[in-house]
Write a structure and sequence with these properties.
Layout: E1 3-7, H1 19-24, H2 37-48, E2 53-57, H3 69-78, E3 81-83, H4 95-105, E4 112-113, H5 132-146, E5 152-154, H6 157-165, E6 173-175, E7 203-206, H7 214-224, E8 228-232, H8 235-243, H9 260-263, E9 267-269, H10 273-281, E10 285-288, H11 291-300, E11 304-308, H12 311-320, E12 324-326, H13 336-341, H14 346-365, H15 376-384, H16 399-410, H17 439-484, H18 488-502
Parallel strand pairs: 1-2, 1-3, 3-4, 5-6, 7-8, 7-10, 8-9, 10-11, 11-12
Helix pairs in contact: 4-5, 10-11
């Protein structure tokens, strides 16, 4: 029997989405503001795609505003199980989506499986620092999940410790790591360093802009490695690269097109895992603070080194035995060449099968049909589909790429400049009523007209209701009057009968 599964996922792996469209989706992108999410979401989809499953993605809508009882009823009626892959969901700035997601889960009558979730705490991973609001939201979420599944999958021991500290049994909190590292052909290994990095070596550096040490790491390695490429993962930087939308970035990090990474065309953003891994396969080494930037490198088959800056990056590096070290105080910098020499992957390769066995046991425990290795036919389908390349800065784009972006930006405006107002030519002498109005002004005027019409409609509805009430009252009075008064012919007939009886 086929199991119908609803998956929390931006889009199916076999469905390429243009970078512009991916970035424009609901303000967070199909990657939920961080392209690293694409890796484990795609991995879950590939893992659960079997002859016994029918997979449907929710496009990240289950935790969004607008969820109503009718849609929840559809989920209950149309699916057998809901699968919710999550990353660092136990954090303060995810409280609202986590609460909305919990409210949906509490109304579901079908199994709900969370195959991966983590907390985001300081490096000392003190669970008491989470705060009462986060504790309450996390506890409510996990309770709702465990009422509908055998266990919950967490990214590492630190998250497991946090949940057991909230009172959940350790045997119901399974440590499974990142699902993206579990789908591979048996015997697959990643080769460690060979020799040393040179000036010709190609290095992929992935950094978290908000981490204070990122600036020093970037500047130090940019000065020493001419073939370094900075791999951005946040949606703000994608907006900068696509459209030149500048923003206030942390000091030293790219937030404008005059930043040296943009000027030298040494920055890329990938909105598709296939093109991301293809690019990384051509690099010699990857390092940085972004955990999924380094996971992507390992999936592409090149050495990687993790610089752990919080509990979530530390626990994943520990579980998977990814070469790593904790980032010390602000201002520290480390040469990628030194990190390359320390990137011994023997422990990572040795732990891989053991970790995958834990992952498969979790899937079996929760009754999810799955595969334990890639599907070559499906992989060929995914690879064959046209994929967007990595996005570089607008200032370095070639004519064809710029034309493509302009076409995308111009779509839906036909007849095009016939509706343009902002930036269009304005005559010096023309009737006031003929002046072109800004689109936002026209929208505001239309809203005013609509509001005025709505007011008139409300007044007319009120008047109609009053008239209806009066009419109903008059009909009642007429009915009462008619029932109490005998017709004239009956009165006359009665009088005549009484009169002739006397005679």
């Amino acid at each position: 029997m086929t199991t119908r599964v609803l998956i929390r996922c931006g889009r199916p792996p076999h469905q390429p989405v243009g970078v512009e469209a991916a970035h424009a989706y609901r303000g967070v992108g199909t990657f939920s503001t961080n392209s690293g999410n694409l890796l484990f979401q795609d991995a879950i989809y590939r893992t659960l795609r079997t002859p016994d499953t029918d997979l449907v993605v929710d496009s990240l809508s289950t935790e969004r505003r607008g969820m109503d009882a009718d849609h929840i009823a559809r989920i209950n009626d149309e699916f057998d199980v809901v699968v919710l892959p999550l990353a660092n969901a136990f954090r303060d700035d995810f409280l609202q989506p986590l609460t909305r997601l919990t409210e949906v889960i509490e109304q579901l009558r079908i199994p709900v499986v969370v195959p991966c979730i983590g907390g985001q705490f300081d490096l000392d991973h003190d669970a008491d620092s989470a705060g009462t609001d986060l504790d309450a939201a996390a506890g409510r979420f996990v309770r709702a999940v465990l009422e509908r599944s055998a266990s919950i999958g967490v990214r590492g021991e630190l998250t497991q410790s946090y949940l057991t500290g909230l009172g959940f049994p350790a045997e119901q909190v399974d440590v499974v790591g990142c699902p993206s590292l579990h789908l591979y052909e048996p015997g697959t290994t990643v080769a460690g360093p060979t020799g040393s990095l040179t000036s010709d070596s190609r290095i992929a550096l992935s950094l978290t802009p908000s981490v204070p040490q990122s600036r020093a790491l970037l500047e130090y390695n940019h000065a020493r490695h001419p073939h370094l490429t900075y791999i951005a993962q946040d949606s703000q930087t994608l907006g900068l690269l696509l459209w030149g939308d500048e923003f206030e970035a942390p000091p030293g990090m790219p937030g404008s097109l005059d930043h040296y990474l943009c000027a030298e065309d040494k920055i890329r953003f990938f909105a598709d895992p296939t093109s991301w891994l293809r690019f990384l396969a051509g690099q010699d080494f990857a390092c940085g603070t972004r955990i999924h930037g380094n996971v992507a490198a390992l999936l592409a088959g090149i050495p990687a080194y993790q610089l752990a800056h919080d509990s979530r990056t530390l626990e994943l590096a520990r579980f998977h035995q990814i070469p790593h070290q904790v980032v010390p105080d602000e201002g520290w910098a480390m040469d990628a060449a030194t990190l390359y020499e320390q990137a011994d992957l023997s422990a990572f390769n040795a732990a891989r099968d053991v970790n995958r066995d834990l992952w498969l046991a979790f899937l079996d425990r929760n009754g999810l049909p799955h595969r334990d290795r890639p599907d070559p036919d499906y992989d060929a389908l995914v690879t064959a589909a046209a994929r967007p390349d990595g996005v570089g800065p607008l200032t370095a784009a070639g004519p064809a790429e710029i034309a493509s972006r302009l076409r995308w930006l111009h779509q839906g405006l036909r007849p095009g400049d016939a509706v343009r107002t902002h930036g269009a030519y304005q005559p010096e002498f023309a009737p006031a009523g003929a002046a072109a109005k800004d689109v936002l002004t026209r929208i505001a005027e239309l809203r005013g007209v609509v509001s005025e019409q709505a007011g008139l409609i409300r007044a007319q509805q009120k008047e109609l209701a009053a008239l209806t009430t009066r009419l109903e009252r008059q009909q009642g009075q007429l009915k009462a009057l008619t029932a109490a008064t005998r017709p004239l012919y009956r009165k006359v007939g009665g009088w005549l009968r009484r009169r002739f009886r006397r005679r």
